[in-house]
Structures are given as C-alpha cells and as structure tokens.
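Bug report (template v2)

What were you trying to do?
Predict the complex of my protein with flavin mononucleotide.

What happened?
Run completed; filing so the output is reviewed.

Input:
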Amino acid sequence: MSVEALFQPFALKSLKLPNRIAMASMARWATPGGDPAPLADFYRRRVEGGTGLILTEGANPNRPAAGNDPNSLKLHGPALDHWPAVTGAVHKAGGAIVPQLWHCGATAKPGQKWAPLAPFESPSGRQAPGMARGIVMDEIAILETIAAFADAAESAKAAGFDGVEVHAGHGYLLDQFLWAATNDRTDHWGGATLAERSRFPLEVVKAVRAAVGPDFAISLRISQWKSADLTARLVETPQALEAWLAPFIEVGVDIVSVSQLRWDTPEFEGSPLSLSGWVKKALGVPTILAGGIGMSGDFISAFMGAPGRPEPLDAVAARLAAGEFDLIAVGRGLLADPDWAHRVQDGRPRSDCPPARLFAGVTPSDSESAA
Ligand SMILES: Cc1cc2nc3c(=O)[nH]c(=O)nc-3n(C[C@H](O)[C@H](O)[C@H](O)COP(=O)(O)O)c2cc1C
C-alpha cells in the first residue's frame, strides 16, 4: 500500500492545493489579544513541512462575546492589519490558508475564569442541558451576528485567504441552534425539526456567500458530537443527513469539513462508511475528514492526558483514493511535528503527541521539529 493518494493536487474554486493534507483548526490561544501576527511563522513552518492547507484556529467575527478567552483569535478590528502577513507567509511557502469563523455561543473554555465584555450569547442561554450560561439572543443580536460573520468573511477575502470555513460543529453557537437540547426557541429561529433549527446557520452561510461572491470556496465544519455531550447526534440516518445538509449546499457551501472523534468510525449501521463518506455519497460534495488521522486515540482523550502514538496511513490513503473523502485534516500530528507531511511522504518515523503539546504556545519554528 502507498500514501501517494495523499499527495495529489486538489482544486475547488479559489482553493488550489498541492496535496490533500490540511492542518486541522486548533485554538491554542497563543495570540495575545487575538492578534494573529505570531501565527505567521507557526503556519509557515507546517507548510514548509509539506502541509498543503492551513485551516486556522477558530477566529472570531466582531461580536463582544464571540470568543471564550482573552486571546481568542480575531477577524476584525486592528487584528486585520496583521492577517496579510500570515496569509503571505503561507503562500510564499507554497500552501493555502482558510480561516475558521467561530463564535463560541454559550460554551466557556473549561477552567477559564475570564468572561467576555458582554455576556455569552446563544439561542436558549445554555451550552447543554443543565449548563445554563449567558443570555438568550434577541432578534437584533441574531441579525447582527449574521452580519458580523459576513463582514469577517469579506475581511478574510481582502486579507488574502483562499476561502473561508464556517464552524457549525462541536456544540458552539451555530451548533447550539441546530441541537434540540440547546434550542427551544419558539420564534422562527427554533422549532421541532432540524430544518427549522437550521435557519440561523443557513442565514450565516447565505450572508457569507453574498459577502465573498460566487468563486470563493466556503467550507462548513460539522460534527454530530458536542463538547458537552460526545454521544449527541443530530441525524440518525443517511436520509436525515441529506435532508439536513442539502439546503446548506444550495445556499453556497462548497466543501463539508467533517469532524469525527475517530476518522474510521462507521456512522450508520450496516456500512463501514464514515460520516464524511456519507456526506459525499448523499450530497456529492467534496469533504475534509478529521479525527485521529495517523494518530492513536482522539483529541478529547488527549486533553485528559492520553498521549497519541503515530499510526500507519495506508488505510486513510486507500479510502481517500476510493473517494470516501477528499482532504484529511491533521491536528495532533501537526502539533507534534511541523514536518509531519514530509515524514509521511518519505516513510520516516513520526513523533508521539504528548498532551503538553496541546497547550504549548506558538513558538518559532525549527525548534519544534521532532527528533
Ligand atoms: C489544541 C486543540 C484545539 C482545537 N481547536 C479547534 C478549533 O478551534 N476549531 C475546531 O473546529 N476544532 C478544533 N480542534 C479539533 C481539531 O480541529 C481536530 O478535529 C481534532 O484535533 C482531531 O484531529 P487529531 O486527532 O488529528 O488531533 C482542536 C483540537 C486541538 C487538539
């Protein structure tokens, strides 16, 4: 078996990649005040190590409670002055870069005492059943938030990014609208069906599409699981999956970025297909797949102290070649080693990912190489 399939180019509208390897979005809160300047070197180093696409850590649109840490990355205000240096560094090294637009909703950072300037905001004022936090968004807050996503996307295009990703998974704001357990609104932003609860995320995507024009690639990050409930599920059948996501494709999503805890977990009974495979099969759109690619365990366990160990990539490459997904997003592997992609390509040994790696600040480059 070979890993050659991972090293084929990929093109989708504005997104032109030398290979199929993306760095997964990873918030590390190592950007003081949300200013992206320190990320230029961090991301450039991964691209020099063979990564084709950088999905930035979650970056906030201009809402006072969009971030859950004082160092949450920003895609508005003075931070915009420094994004071109980050996109430029990645492009110069031969890669592409896409920001992840992220609003935390009612999800505070675990252990974080800091609170944003305005209260946390969400559809029904809670992160999960029994986890109340902040305020219920009124109509004005909802409309302003949609506009803030659109502004951030427009700014991203102006700053030289190659596309945008909208974060609608992991139990953050958009997912809080989708999940029945966090959305019991009785206005038109809620409802008994997933289609009704999809209205807010759909309006966000629509506004983002209108802001960036038809040729700029838009990715939608989704997950079944929520950080507050790893067993939560939005859909139970392939038909429900198709009915949920088809409207998102209609309003402008080009690629679906699927977050699983493990990439090879079958999604529905009777088939080995991953959620990502089902998205492709049901909707015919390209997908990005993340979750334990080339690394044992999952990142939630890593936060609880479990080290990740390198795993072979033959099966990943074979399933990509068979069309189950188009790109892989690698998280812990690329924290452990900026040269991850070149090592995979050359068949060289790769590093473990000790839990401490998840929390390290952004540090200049070469010292981060694995032994
Ligand atoms: C330190 C850290 C921070 C993360 N932050 C984000 C984030 O900002 N946005 C997001 O969508 N996922 C985030 N994730 C999840 C990753 O994008 C990815 O899905 C996960 O790490 C699984 O990939 P892995 O097993 O290769 O690490 C984060 C993961 C880690 C380890």
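What did the reviewer find?
The mean pLDDT is 95. The pocket of flavin mononucleotide is lined by residues 24-28, 57-58, 100, 167, 170, 221, 259, 290-293, 295, 298-299, 330-333, 358 (CB under 6 Å).
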